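Shapes recur. One chain:

:::
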Amino acid sequence: MDGPIDHGGSDRVGMSGRSGDRDGAPAPAPRGSGRRLGFAAAGVMLAAADTYVVVLALPSIMGDIGLSLNHLEAATPIISGFLLGYVALLPLLGRLSDILGRAPVFAGCLVVFAFGSLVTASAQDLTGAVVGRALQGVGGGGLVPVTLAIVADLWPAGRRGVPLGVVGGVQELGSVLGPLYGAAILTFSTWRLIFWLNLPIAALLGTGFLLARPAGSTPTRAGPRRSIDLPGVLLLAAALVAGGLAVAAPGPLAASEVWGVLWGPLIGGSDWTTPLALVALAAAALSLVWGLSGAGDAPRLLRLRRVPEIWGQVDVPGGALLALVLAFVVISFSAADPSQGLVAPAAAVLLPAALVAAIALAIRETRAPAALVPLRQLRDPAAAGALLCNLAIGAGLMAALVDIPIFARATAYGSQLGAALVLLRLLAAVPVGAVLGGILCERLGYRVTTLLGMALTTAMFVLMGGWTASSLGSGLRLSDPVLVGCGLGFGLAIAPINAAILGAVAAARHGLAAALVVVARMVGMLVGISLLTAIGLHRYYQEAATIPSPAILCPGHPLSCAAYNALSQHALLDELRTIFTAAAVFTAAAGLIGAAMLRRHRESDPGAMAAALGA
């Protein structure tokens, strides 16, 4: 059971001679690689846009599912549920793509993302919205490491910089377009349309991705091409269509005298007993039975007879332990109120539990024959350095995403839209920096490119630490190149960090490695914002303690005391400036780590690489 199982259209191509041509230069990627990467990158951009679209849609979602806008904290599970789904299963999905092949896992993630969008669009209460967003997080998050691994499969080490930069660029572009896309839809329709549109878009991207096979891609198995499993396709399609209609319950159909009976419960008032739900459950059950039937070489869409084989390779217990560790960390920090503490109250139980799970994971991974996390490979300086770099970068990036709009609202802009447009200067520069970083890392190396990017970002954070109340505003200002430079610096580091870890681990672990580097950034964002906000609040409380009360400053009109308001604003700006300065420490550390630990590895022996990729 050493070889990978490849079901249904892997990106794995014959690698003989891929390490270089006769003069030692890296060989180009197979013909058609760009098309497949294009569809995969578009899927990443769709998921990234959906991550940020909730920023503007959240008030409308809350109103429709019965939550008061005065209790924003009640909607926290909608956000934390997405983060939990995004982070917790990433390593397991990355490893599955190493075993099953990139195409089936990518397509599966798109299906989960689309189904999560359907559940979200149909949600009538908080539970439905949370479940839908969590499914979107699982599917959307899984697209990122699979796409990064596709680059590693199709491009040799010396040519990965630009495609990795493109992937990082479109991911960051999605974060820019998401709020704008959401705002445009909300001007003429409801928030539900945002999620309904994900279904046809995901279907188009998935179809294009599966059809865009690179030249030289290996068939799913040696020997003649398998016939299509028509019964399996029909059963699974029936389950998905009936289940989707049961969840969505389109108004004109559900209210129809003719078709409405399909949504009427047959037993009590349970939605599980509607005709559509029962058809979906029956089709799903038959699909599972069909997948378990037949000889080992029989054509099956769901090849469930191989589940024990896959189970042994994917290390499900290790994946469950890692998911627990990440889930406990995400909940501890994402549900925290920075004004009350660094972590949520539940962290008193969750963080010790995370530590116990982490110890159990470490023990298992040193003994398991097919460990999920290859600890020996992650001890490589390039792999460890990539994870540490992204951890520190995540902290700095989150400080920029959260606190720059707050600074803008507190000074020059009274609306959330105006403050968001200020941040847009930074966000728009990140994808540009990502592509530029991909070009530079192939010429200057991973260490120099990462150091340049983080040095630029650090310098810009230091300048932000000196911003005044008049630094932001209409017209061209000195703060504009500062914001652009900060975004460029973040972008420059994306490609070299991803390339370093992909080059440091075995080709058979590329999906997992790509997942871990994404997880490191997300954990850095969650932990970093809590830590930096706590540091900033400490500074704020120091300043606020010295401010006299409005009754002392303005004895005649304490409720409209301009002097008190000015001092309070100064304390708030001091808090934000402190956060920017502290963020500079994190990005400087990322640059130093990158300069010390990131390095380019030579390609493995072509024969070994071919075996690892299933050629």
In short: The radius of gyration is 26 Å.
